[in-house]
Amino acid sequence: MPAAATQLKAVAKEAASCTRCPLYRNATQTVFGEGAARATIMLVGEQPGDQEDLAGHPFVGPAGKVLDRAMAEAGLDRKKVWLTNAVKHFKNEPRGKKRLHKRPNRYEVEVCRVWLRQEISLVKPQLILALGVTAAIALAGRPVVLSRERGRVIELEDGQRGMVTTHPSSILRMPDPKARHAAFAALVKDLKAAVKAA
Ligand code: URA
Fold first, then answer.
1. Which of 95, 104, 105, 164 has the most crowded CB, counting CB atoms within 10 A?
2. What's the rounded mean pLDDT across residues 172-197?
3. Mutate to test the pocket of ligand 1, among 167, 170, 173 (most ligand atoms within 8 A of CB)
4. CA 53, 194, 117: angle at the middle one, nearest 5?
5. How many CA atoms lie within 13 A of 150 on its CB side?
6. Per-residue pLDDT tens for 12-69?
7. ipTM above 0.90, yes or no
8. Which residues line ligand 1 (CB under 6 A)?
C-alpha cells in the first residue's frame, strides 16, 4: 500500500477533473486539501474563495490571512495540519466581469463529500476542526449550532472526533472592531482547544 502522501496525490489528481456537480463549470480549478499527509489535526473550511480558485491552494486569500494569524497565536503550524474545504470548487456566479462568490448548497456539499471522506480516511487525523457551519454540517451529518457546540469535542459522522468553530471570513465581515477582536480571540481559543484535544 503506497504511503498516505502518495495516495492523497492520486486522489487530488482524480478530484482535479471532478464534474460531479455543476460548480466546476465556472471555477478555474479544483482546490484540494494540502499539508501534512498524516496530520493529527485536520481543518475544514467551506469552499475556496476567489483567490484560492485562481491560486489552486486553500486559504490563501483574506480569510486565509486571518486563519494564519489565529493559528500562529494558537501555536499551530500550517505545514503540520491538513487544511481543506468541504467543497473543492469555488462557487462563482459571475455578474458581468465580476466574480461573485455564493455559498454552496446542500447538494453541492453532499456530492463533494466523496473527496472529504477520502482525505479523512487517508490522513487519519486525531481531530477534525470544522471552520464554520457548512463544514460542521458536512462533517457531523446533522444541523450544528456553532454557539452551542464550539470549543468542545463532538462526535462526527463515521465516529471521528471533531470540534467546530467560526469561519475566519465571518470575523472579517464584522464592522465593529471590538466584536472583531473578540471573535478573533474566540477563534484562537478554539484552535488551542483543538490542539489540546488532538
Ligand atoms: N474560505 C474557505 O472556506 N476556504 C478557503 O479556502 C478560503 C476561504
1. 164
2. 97
3. 167
4. 50
5. 18
6. 999 999 999 999 999 999 999 999 999 999 999 999 999 999 999 999 999 999 999 9
7. yes
8. 45-49, 52, 58-59, 61, 63-64, 85, 169
Domains and CATH numbers, the chain: 4-197 (3.40.470.10)
Distance 99 CA to ligand 1 centre (A): 15
pTM: 0.96
Ligand 1 pocket test, pick from 71, 85, 88, 170 with the greatest ligand atom count within 8 Å of Cβ, gives 85
Which ligand 1 atom sits closest to the C-alpha of 46? 3
Which grid cell is 188? 484562537
Q: Which is nearest to 131 in space by CA: 57, 46, 66, 51?
A: 46
Residue 12: CB atoms within 10 Å: 18
Cβ 105 vs Cβ 20: under 8 Å: no
Backbone angles phi, psi at 44, to 5 degrees: -125, 120
DSSP state of 110: H
Please tell me which residue, 40 or 100, carries the higher pLDDT value: 40
Q: How far, in Å, from the CA of 110 to the mean position of ligand 1?
A: 17
Of ligand 1's atoms, which has the minimum distance to the CA of residue 57?
6
